[in-house]
Every structure is written in structure tokens, then in C-alpha cells.
């Protein structure tokens, strides 16, 4: 066994514990440094995979993320509706964070990464790497959706093509990939809606992940954030389709540009639409994290005050418990008296001692005192 261990060490650079080998247990195998992938590379890959899962994840013919939009539009709502689209994004968010959180933090959103960097919760030197991974993941995911639904998209062509026509009010199947303002919505309204929705979403993220603020367990945080995304979609998605994430919109928009929809994906409404879903999330995320850091986040002094309040509440609880114990003792004495027989004893004087009890039990004392007095008068007292 030792010979095998030495040969493995020579060939592969593995370090085997001699004691473990002699006991025929699992060897302590450690790889050489050249086989170890740097943490920054792993974090970037985690952001890529997490963003990919956020945008599209195909499991048993069910598409999450952008695929929910494709499923709803290409089947005219028969295999998906607006509610299903929102659930697709919420579940995609949960799964994406679960996949990447332990390695990269599970940002999956360039706006979130920028907001955390501004508040010094994230290193600026890592920002370009995270952004590149996030946008690349969105591109790969939207390409997957295009491949999965390519035949259905071909069936949706109008006059042999599916390009967005000039001055068109409806982007058509291009809305599978990116967000476009509704015909009745102005660009200013869509921008305000995007900022407001992203700000609220960022507030929920900060409150959920701050250990001193909400104390949400780490394994539950993806679900809280996913349900927050679901709430934003149900509340703010009618005017332009909520983006909340620049990578989620720009990456698939580029895919649709090269996929055959042409420059109309950018020139829709005379180039007065696509920038909303890039600028809005960044502004909203920065506002959200600043509001939390300045107004909501607990400070050390706040923590001290909270500890004092908790200590006082703990003392009050102990006093209440002691009071309940004394009350139960009084009730036990009463029950024991009623259950005890009366015996003949000589007349003796008894000094009644009144134990200080809460006012609520003062009604019990006259009964006991009267009973003892009657026992003395008749020569009978409780056994």
C-alpha cells in the first residue's frame, strides 16, 4: 500500500498520509497548486452560470426566464401567460443565486454589482470581470432560447421575415428577448417605473442579506429575493416589462439583433427605448442601496440600544414567570385544603402570616384566613 502511495505521489504530485494508507482508509489527497483554479476565475464562472440560469434554464421541457416569455408568446398564451412569465423569472432568480452565491455572492446583475461597489461592499477591481461574466451569461442564455424556439419563431414570420418594421408600434417576436415600451407608455414613464422597481428590489436585497438587520438564514435568502422579483413583476411589468437587470435586457437584445430582427431592436421608437432598461436599473439600484445604508441599516449605537431593550424585556419575562409560579402555589394550597379531611385539635392561637403576593391574588387570602379562623372556632383545622 505504501508503494502504491509513493508511486501516485511521484506521478501525479499527490500527498498520501502513510497512517491512513496503512489503515486502508481514504487517503488525504491534495492537488498541486498548478491544478487549482484561482478564486477570481471561479467567481467569474459562477456569475456566468448564475446569470445563464437566471435567463434560461431548460428542465423537462419547461423553460425558466426568457424561455417563459417565448413559451407564452409563441403559443398565444396556451402554454404560458403573464403570471407564468413572472414565475419563470422568480424561479430563475432563485436557482441562479443558489448556483453561484457561495462562490461569487450571486450578484447576477451589473446594477447590483455597481451599487455594492459604490458602497464599498465590493472591490472596484472586480467590477469589470463580473460585468463581463454577467453579460456573457445573458448572451449565451438568449442564444439557447433562440435555438430551442427557432422553428416556432420561423412560423411567426410576417411576409417571410420577422424584422421590426420602421415606425412599428409592436416589436412582435423581438419582445421574447428584450423589453420594449408599450404603445401607450411614454419613455419618461417607463424610466421612472424602472428606477422605482429596481430601487425597491435593491432594498429587499440589502435587507435580506444584511445579517444584523433581518437575520434571514443564508439558505432562505434566494427564496426571499426570488419572491421579491415576482412581486416586482406583478406590480410594475405592464408598461414596459420589468428589466431590473441591464444584462437581462442588453444581452438578449444583441442576440436578437444578430438573430435576424435587425437594427430595429435598437432603433425602436427612434432609439428612445432600449437605453431605459440600461440606465434605469443602475440608477434604481444605487438609490436603493444608498437609502438602506443611510436610513435603514443598523449602527453600533442602535445595536446597543436594542440589546438594552432586549435585556429589560428578558427581566420582565422572568418576573412574570416567577409571578405565575407563586400563583400556582396558592392555587395548589387551596386545592389541597378542599381535598383534606378535618381533624379535632385543641384550641390554639395561630399567627397568620401574609406572604406578599401580587394584587391579583389578594382575593385568595381572605378565603384562606376565614377558613382557618372557622377551624379554630370549631376546634377543627385542615390536616
From TrEMBL:
Main location: membrane
One term of GO molecular function: water channel activity
Keyword tags: Cell membrane, Glycoprotein, Membrane, Repeat, Transmembrane, Transmembrane helix, Transport
Membrane protein topology class: Multi-pass membrane protein
Compartments where located: Cell membrane
Classification via InterPro entries: Aquaporin-like (IPR023271), Aquaporin_3 (IPR023275), MIP (IPR000425), MIP/Aquaporin (IPR050363), MIP_CS (IPR022357)
Pfam families: MIP
Any one cellular-component term (Gene Ontology): basolateral plasma membrane
CDD domains reported in the protein's UniProt record: MIP
Bilayer-spanning residue ranges: 39-59, 87-108, 129-150, 186-207, 219-238, 274-296
Record-stated family: Belongs to the MIP/aquaporin (TC 1.A.8) family.
Subunit and interaction comment: Homotetramer; each monomer provides an independent glycerol/water pore. Could also exist in other oligomeric states.
Its biological purpose: Aquaglyceroporin that may modulate the water content and osmolytes during anhydrobiosis.
Name of this protein: Aquaporin-3
Amino acid at each position: 500500500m505504501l508503494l502504491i502511495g509513493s508511486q501516485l505521489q511521484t506521478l501525479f504530485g499527490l500527498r498520501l498520509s502513510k497512517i491512513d494508507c496503512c489503515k486502508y482508509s481514504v487517503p488525504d489527497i491534495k492537488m498541486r497548486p498548478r491544478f487549482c483554479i484561482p478564486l477570481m476565475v471561479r467567481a467569474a464562472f459562477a456569475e456566468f452560470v448564475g446569470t445563464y440560469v437566471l435567463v434560461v434554464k431548460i428542465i423537462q421541457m419547461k423553460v425558466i426566464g426568457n424561455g417563459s416569455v417565448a413559451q407564452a408568446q409563441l403559443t398565444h398564451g396556451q402554454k404560458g401567460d403573464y403570471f407564468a412569465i413572472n414565475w419563470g423569472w422568480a424561479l430563475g432568480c432563485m436557482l441562479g443565486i443558489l448556483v453561484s452565491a457561495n462562490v461569487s455572492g450571486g450578484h447576477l446583475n451589473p446594477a447590483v454589482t455597481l451599487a455594492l461597489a459604490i458602497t464599498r461592499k465590493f472591490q472596484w477591481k472586480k467590477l469589470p470581470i463580473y460585468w463581463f461574466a454577467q453579460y456573457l451569461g445573458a448572451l449565451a442564455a438568449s442564444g439557447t432560447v433562440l435555438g430551442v424556439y427557432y422553428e416556432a419563431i420561423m412560423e411567426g414570420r410576417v411576409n417571410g421575415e420577422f424584422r421590426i418594421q420602421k415606425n412599428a408600434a409592436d416589436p412582435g417576436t423581438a419582445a421574447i428577448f428584450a423589453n420594449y415600451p408599450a404603445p401607450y407608455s411614454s419613455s419618461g414613464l417607463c424610466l421612472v417605473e424602472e428606477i422605482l422597481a429596481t430601487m425597491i428590489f435593491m432594498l429587499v436585497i440589502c435587507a435580506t442579506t444584511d445579517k444584523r438587520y433581518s437575520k434571514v438564514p443564508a439558505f432562505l435568502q434566494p427564496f426571499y429575493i426570488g419572491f421579491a422579483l415576482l412581486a416586482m413583476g406583478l406590480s410594475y411589468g405592464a408598461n414596459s416589462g420589468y428589466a431590473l437587470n441591464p444584462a437581462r435586457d442588453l444581452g438578449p437584445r444583441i442576440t436578437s439583433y444578430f438573430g435576424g430582427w435587425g437594427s430595429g431592436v435598437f432603433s425602436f421608437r427612434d432609439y428612445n427605448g432600449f437605453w431605459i432598461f440600461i440606465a434605469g436599473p443602475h440608477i434604481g439600484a444605487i438609490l436603493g442601496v444608498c437609502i438602506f445604508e443611510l436610513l435603514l441599516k443598523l449602527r453600533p449605537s442602535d445595536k446597543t440600544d436594542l440589546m438594552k431593550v432586549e435585556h429589560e424585556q428578558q427581566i420582565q419575562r422572568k418576573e412574570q414567570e416567577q409571578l405565575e409560579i407563586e400563583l400556582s402555589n396558592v392555587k395548589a394550597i387551596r386545592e389541597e385544603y378542599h381535598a383534606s379531611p378535618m381533624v379535632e385539635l385543641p384550641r390554639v392561637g395561630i399567627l397568620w402570616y401574609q406572604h406578599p403576593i401580587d394584587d391579583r391574588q389578594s382575593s385568595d387570602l381572605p378565603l384562606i384566613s376565614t377558613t382557618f379562623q372557622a377551624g379554630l372556632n370549631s376546634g377543627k383545622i385542615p390536616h
